[in-house]
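pipeline/complex-builder :: batch 7 item 3
reading input block
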Amino acid sequence: MNSNEKILLAHGGGGRLMQHLIQNLFASCFAMGQNAQQDAALLTIGSENIAFTTDCYVVDPLFFAGGDIGSLAVYGTVNDLAMMGAQPLYLSAAFILEEGLEINILQRIVHSMQQAALTAGVKIVTGDTKVVDRGRGHGIFINTTGIGCLSSQAIIAPSMIEVGDRIILNGDLGRHGLAVLSAREDLNFEPQISSDLAPLNKIVQTLLQNGIEIHAMRDLTRGGLASALNEIAQSANIQINLRESQIPVSQEVRGACELLGLDPLYVANEGRFVAFVKEQDVDKTIEILRSLGGYASCIGQVSSRARALVTLENNFGQSRILALLSGEQMPRIC
Amino acid sequence: MNSNEKILLAHGGGGRLMQHLIQNLFASCFAMGQNAQQDAALLTIGSENIAFTTDCYVVDPLFFAGGDIGSLAVYGTVNDLAMMGAQPLYLSAAFILEEGLEINILQRIVHSMQQAALTAGVKIVTGDTKVVDRGRGHGIFINTTGIGCLSSQAIIAPSMIEVGDRIILNGDLGRHGLAVLSAREDLNFEPQISSDLAPLNKIVQTLLQNGIEIHAMRDLTRGGLASALNEIAQSANIQINLRESQIPVSQEVRGACELLGLDPLYVANEGRFVAFVKEQDVDKTIEILRSLGGYASCIGQVSSRARALVTLENNFGQSRILALLSGEQMPRIC
């Protein structure tokens, strides 16, 4: 890593630069081990196995169609725990407030967190407040850190993926990123695009309780589907083949993306995830997911261990490589 | 709480306004219960009792004599766990970086965190990075959240304090706040005042292993000794009488405070704590603390349950009330 470099927005964007920072600085200095590329760390305390995860939320603006920084801070961290197969139990909530922030904005956000915690079934048990001088923050930043318990012994991780596994996606892509962007830039899409922000823990628990053997999961936040699958492909050293026709993107999102020059496969989601399951579990998985709402589908499969690669086959049978994002497509969406 | 109010620096200062915000917003919306005024939440996961605490660090400047935002972020959170009698095990580390930050500054800070984690005996196991646009942050903010295990069954909390308990302080006051302020304002005190920043977990474990029955503890960070004792007095509904002559303040700190119009009893520390112990444990406690370095002393006692109050008796036998800070004496020292 070149010490003369400066931090760019892309260092937080979920793509190549962020990976570089994690691998070459954080993972090498901290005790992250295998956890560095995962959504949460798996730890042992006495006789208990827990998952532990942290996220700062800096979304701009604070409120958007379908959510706000408060519900995002609760569901985002809940989902990181859920992706490890853990049952989220406790969250901490720490605030960095900018001097001059209106108390009623803080109140709205805290109430939204309260409601989100209730919905997800987690308790916010400890907190912190710091205030920075005007012009040194941006209204409000929130950190939530979560603890979940691992009820099952099954390991859910990229290393468990097998050739032939199918990839299930639980709904349509791109709504969160576009909802935030349209609120920030005051774009009035018709109909309005609302974030897909939602807690995933109960959905995952239902899959596990119904005996679905999930090999790996990942929620599709920063960098979207393409970045999540590229990380998994690298981590598990597998080739993933996707079929474009099977990936649900709504008309509104597709239209807005064309207008803005964005690729929906790289746009952030906050209530979408992929699960890697055996072929024989595909129908049951989709059925359960659809019964819980959302248009789940099987979007592709793990074809080989020859190369770490994600390919996308279009409707005409042509394949292209879906690369890891190099720059920053859309900053501060979470 | 008045919704038309705005956030002031004092809302993060450890005094009256911060208490108000915690009691009237966070504690009433979140599941904090008795934990709202404590350094950490006490939780149960399966058969294990753990302590869980979070803090954001926004210290300005990032580097100061005796430490930097990195070591502060590790030791500050370690100390919050230690104050509950917990053994710190795991930390998360989440960064909010400002676009344009030099990578070599981030590297120095991450290396400092690595060293601090090693010194304190904790593992940094998970993390997050967000980048905010230039002018919307301030170089670097860090959140660390910690998990500790409670080995002993003894409860350490203000509710355990008894009338007659003595208050032990582990060293001299005011160095952290002045070290940060002098770095920020480019004040060149002679000799230089260095922060007291230090991990307290091994000190606390040594006291407990030697059979010292600690009723309550608190580290003396934002708002200093006076604020910490006022919080405890209110929480336990006790009157605390301090003797000024027993409270160690170095010549340098006293001189600098006089120059700046500050009261050292309200200045932040990052390696100082008070322990409430039985009278018969005073000598042994002081002996152990001095054997570990630092000028420990017995600075006062719990005199009654008549009123929630902290008084300070000066060298001439006159007493005054040491109130909770109303405004903000010194922002962004942690």
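note: Chain A touches chain B through 84 residues (CB under 8 Å).
queue -> next item
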